[in-house]
Write a structure and sequence with these properties.
- The protein has about 350 residues and is mostly helical.
- The protein has helices at about 5-20, 25-45, 50-80, 90-105, 115-120, 125-130, 135-145, 150-170, 175-190, 200-220, 225-230, 240-250, 260-270, 275-300, 325-335, 340-345.
- The chain has two domains: about 1-140, no CATH class; about 150-310 and about 320-345, no CATH class.
- InterPro entries: Complex_I_Subunit_2, NADH_DH_su2_C, NADH_UbQ_OxRdtase_chain2, ND/Mrp_TM.
Length: about 350
C-alpha cells in the first residue's frame, strides 16, 4: 500500500474509533462507525486477490446494514422520547434493534457467519485490526447502553456465541478461521456479563486484545497461516514458537496464565447474581474452545504429528523479532499474579 494512503487509512481508523468512544450523541457515534468501516475496507482489499475483494464486499454489506440499523434505532428512540443521548435509550423496539445491530457489527451469533470469511480473506495484520480495534467502538456503545438492554436476549446470544465459536472451530485447518471462532467465543463471555458488571466486560476485552495481538504478531513474524505451516515453523523461529504456545494456552484460559483471570471473574460474578446454571453452561462450552487451542499448541511446539509433510523446512532463522511481541507475550502470560492490583483498579 502507498505510504500516504496507509497514513490516511490509519488516521481515519484512529479518528473513527476516538469519535465513537468519546461521543454521547447518536449521530456522532454513527459517524465514527462509518469512518471506521470506510477506513478498513482498503486495508482488507489491498492485496487485490479475489478472496480479499470478496471479504471486503462482505464486510461492507454487513457493516452498512448494521450501521443503518443503529441509525434507525436511534431515530425511533428520538421520535418516542425526544432524546439523542446514547445513555437515554428507553424505547423497547429501539433497544431490540440496537442489540441486533451491535451483534451484527461484532459478529455475535447468530450474526457471526461473515466474520470468519472476512478474516480468511485478509492479511494477518488486517485480521488483527478486525479482531481488536474494530470491535472496540461497538462494545463501547453496548457499555453505554447496558442499563437498557434485554438480559434474556444477550444471554441467548452469549451462550450461542460460546457454543458456535467452540464447535465450528474444531474442524478448521486455517489459523485465521480458528482465531475468528475464538473471537466469537470470547465475545460470548464479554456479552454475558455486560449488564451485571460493565467494567468486567472492558477488562475482558483489554486482556483479549493483548493476547490476540501477541498471537497475530507472532504468526505474522513467522508467516504462518495454516496448521501445516505451523508444524514446521519451529525451524524458522524456535523461541517465538515456544512463546506462541504459552500465549495460546493463556487465550484458552488455563489457570497459570493471565487468560484465566477474566473467566474466573465472570463465573464468580454470574454466581453472585444467582445465575449458576448460566455460569456452568458457558464454562462447559469453553471446553470446546480449549480443544482446538490445545491442538494448535500440539502442532506448534510439543511434537509433530505422525505423518510426512510436503513442505520444505526453512533454513533461514529471522533474529530480528519485534520487541512488541515480547512485551505482549509477557503481559499475556504473567498478569495473573497482578490480579489483585487489576481488581482494585476496576
Amino acid at each position: 500500500m502507498n505510504p500516504y494512503a496507509k497514513l490516511i487509512t490509519l488516521t481515519s481508523l484512529a479518528l473513527g474509533t476516538t469519535l465513537t468512544i468519546s461521543s454521547n450523541h447518536w449521530a456522532m457515534a454513527w459517524t465514527g462507525l462509518e469512518i471506521n468501516t470506510i477506513a478498513i475496507i482498503p486495508m482488507i482489499s489491498k492485496s487485490h486477490h479475489p478472496r480479499a475483494i470478496e471479504a471486503a464486499v462482505k464486510y461492507f454489506l454487513v457493516q452498512a446494514a448494521a450501521s443503518a440499523s443503529i441509525l434507525f434505532s436511534s431515530l425511533i428512540n428520538a421520535w418516542s422520547c425526544g432524546q439523542w443521548d446514547i445513555t437515554q435509550l428507553t424505547n423497547p423496539v429501539s433497544c431490540l434493534l440496537l442489540t441486533t445491530a451491535i451483534a451484527m457489527k461484532l459478529g455475535l451469533a447468530p450474526f457471526h457467519f461473515w466474520f470468519p470469511e472476512v478474516l480468511q480473506g485478509s492479511s494477518l495484520t488486517t485480521s488483527l485490526l478486525l479482531s481488536t480495534v474494530m470491535k472496540f467502538p461497538p462494545i463501547t456503545i453496548l457499555l453505554l447502553t447496558s442499563n437498557s438492554l434485554n438480559p434474556p436476549l444477550l444471554t441467548f446470544m452469549a451462550i450461542s456465541s460460546a457454543a458456535l465459536g467452540g464447535w465450528m472451530g474444531l474442524n478448521q485447518t486455517q489459523i485465521r478461521k480458528v482465531l475468528a471462532f475464538s473471537s466469537i467465543s470470547h465475545l460470548g463471555w464479554m456479552t454475558i456479563i455486560i449488564i451485571y458488571a460493565p467494567k468486567l466486560t472492558l477488562l475482558t476485552f483489554l486482556l483479549y486484545t493483548v493476547m490476540t495481538s501477541a498471537i497475530f504478531l507472532s504468526l505474522n513474524e513467522s508467516n504462518t497461516t495454516k496448521l501445516s505451516t505451523l508444524m514446521t515453523s519451529w525451524t524458522k523461529t524456535p523461541t517465538l514458537n515456544a512463546t506462541l504456545m504459552l500465549t495460546l494456552l493463556s487465550l484458552a484460559g488455563l489457570p497459570p496464565f493471565a487468560g484465566f483471570l477474566p473467566k474466573w471473574l465472570i463465573i464468580q460474578e454470574l454466581t453472585k447474581q444467582e445465575l449458576t446454571p448460566t455460569a456452568l453452561t458457558i464454562a462447559l462450552l469453553s471446553l470446546l474452545s480449549l480443544f482446538f487451542y490445545l491442538r494448535l499448541t500440539y502442532f506448534s511446539s510439543i511434537t509433530l504429528p505422525p505423518n510426512s509433510t510436503n513442505q520444505m523446512k526453512h533454513w533461514y532463522i529471522n533474529k530480528n523479532t519485534s520487541p512488541l511481541i515480547a512485551v505482549l507475550t509477557s503481559l499475556s502470560t504473567l498478569l495473573l499474579p497482578l490480579s489483585p492490583l487489576i481488581l482494585s483498579t476496576i
